[in-house]
Amino acid sequence: MRRVGFKPVTALRSEEPEPDEAHPDRGRRYIVTLEEGAPLDVTVVDREQQAQGFFYRVWQRLALRGTIQRRSLLSLRQALEQEALLAYAAIAAGANAPKLIATSELGPDAVMLIYEHVGGRPLGAVPDEEITDELMTGAWRQLKALQSRRIAHRRLDGDALLVDRSGNVVLTDLRGGEIAAGDLVLRMDVAQLLVTLGLRVGAERAVATGVDVLGPDAIADSLPLLQPLALTRVSRATLRQLARERAHREREKVLEAARAAKEAREEPGRKELKAERQAEKKAIDEALEEAREEDLLAQIRRQVLLIRPQAPIEPVRLERIKPRTLISFVAGAIAAYFLLSQLTHIKFGDLVDKANWAWVAMAVAFQALTYVAAAMSLLGFVPEKVTFGRTVLAQVAGSFVKIVAPAAVGGVALNTRFLQRAGVRPGLAVASVGASQLFGLACHIMLLLAFGYVTGTERSSSLGPSRTVIGGLLTAAVLVLVVAAIPVLRKFVSTRVRSLFAGVVPRMLDVLQRPQKLCFGIGGMLLLTAANVMCLDASIRAFGGELSYASIAVVFLTANALGSAAPTPGGVGAVEFALTGALTFAGLPAEIAAPAVLLFRLMTLWLPVLPGWGCFTHLTRKGAI
After folding, report:
1. How does pLDDT run across 242-259, given as a tens digit for each residue?
2. How far is residue 38's CA from residue 30's CA, in Å, rounded to a whole number?
3. Listing from the earlier edge strand, what are the strands of the sheet with 100-105?
4. Residues near 248 by Cβ (< 8 Å), separated by ≥ 6?
5. 8-116: what fold?
6. How far is it, in rounded angstroms, from Cα 169 to Cα 124?
7. What CA–CA distance (Å, rounded) separates 57 from 51?
8. At residue 162, what are phi and psi to the nearest 5 degrees?
9. Considering the entire predicted model, what is its pTM?
10. CA 40 to CA 166: how far, in whole Å?
11. What are the phi and psi torsion angles at 404 (to 5°)?
């Protein structure tokens, strides 16, 4: 500062949010007192400050359509010139902005901008009761001055609007703006200021003051830009926090309605159980309807439509690349890597030469049947009407999802998301999938015990079960006793089981009122197991082997349980090891068991990846998942 002609005495860091919390590249700010005259505001920007927002700006340039000025790779000198130009342009447009007095480079790695000091408080620090209509009108007038010269601010949140001692609004933090901005960016500024003011005083007052200054047409034209993607990160974070608080209030009201319904059941003269359940469900539905609140963006749209009913409300598509598309691409790359790495170890020559292709075709048919069975097992626990064809496609898409996620996680998440997009409420969708999984687990255990018992009696004239079944039952009994004896484990398990049954049991009661649905779901589970067992049997017969269906069922059910518990995508490694070992233990020669397992895994895991990816992409494009 001395080199540019000033006589500073002290420099104190301004009290403000850390740069990476709100605006990553805003620089460090100081209040400098001089030997003579008023103090000055000094902003210092160095390489570290500039780099903090680099990746965020790069992502915006890749993901958004024409809304980000291409300056992510600006040098420090170019950044200095950009901010100086915006400061001079804002003042020339008639806006209240700090006057830029001097600039200077501080060596090769930092720059400095010196402004006249403007005392005051950021709008975010002003109490709600002090935000008057005159104050908001002043903010809108500053925006109008910028837009008259096609200057976009791009950061009109509570930190960029300064209220001085006279109550006037001063525009700060101009370094993120644009000169000669396009219509889209200018409308984004209007939408951002609507949200900034609406968060403090509500949608009605924010819209009314905006209409008074800019006119109804300018406010109405901003509606397509009234979406989270067009707002600053600070505003998006605040809206998310409000949404969480709103969801908490809704949940509390629903729980209160459920408690009231429960107390009503305990009163004398209660009716039959079915009528009570219907009354409770009605009370919860009414509580949900009463608890639903519009978010701020919806409130602003409603206020604008009261003034301009014909205003366009369809959101402008700002995304060039959606995060979901990027995730799908990355997941596809991971799946391709797993697929290629596994296929390189496969001896296709042996498969082609030794396989009986009639049985291979049977394996393919049984594998295709598993997707129909999986759709049946899911829809049997969904009382609401869901399209069967799309449900089958969702199960095919699960073949792709389980390659990039553990089998026990990916399928549950996909089915839950599918039911939600099909119109089932989130809580009910989770409960339906949970009920299906819980019933499937019970069915799995019962089938394993039943086929294990049959396997143990196949080679014996007595009716005693196999040693494996006895060992498994004894192990399970010991585990139950250990959990019951240790208070910490008992509390942990009981808490988890209680939370699971809290949502699943009411859903099961709804399903039990429709026996046809329940039979449909149970039939789907049995058909799913049978189709997989027949697919494995066909794979074994394709190489000349033969085992009893009971033995194959035990092998499949055991390997499937290990695959679900394994943390690897699709149970890779664990399932192959379990299948090969179990088939060999059951009496199948190793030279037949190995290629049979290889063929079975090709049918059930690797070959469905490409159709699964196609179904996943199709359902994503249709908004079904």
Report:
1. 888 887 777 777 667 667
2. 14
3. 8-13, 28-34, 40-46, 110-116, 100-105
4. none
5. Phosphorylase Kinase; domain 1 (3.30.200)
6. 12
7. 10
8. -105, 135
9. 0.57
10. 19
11. -105, 5
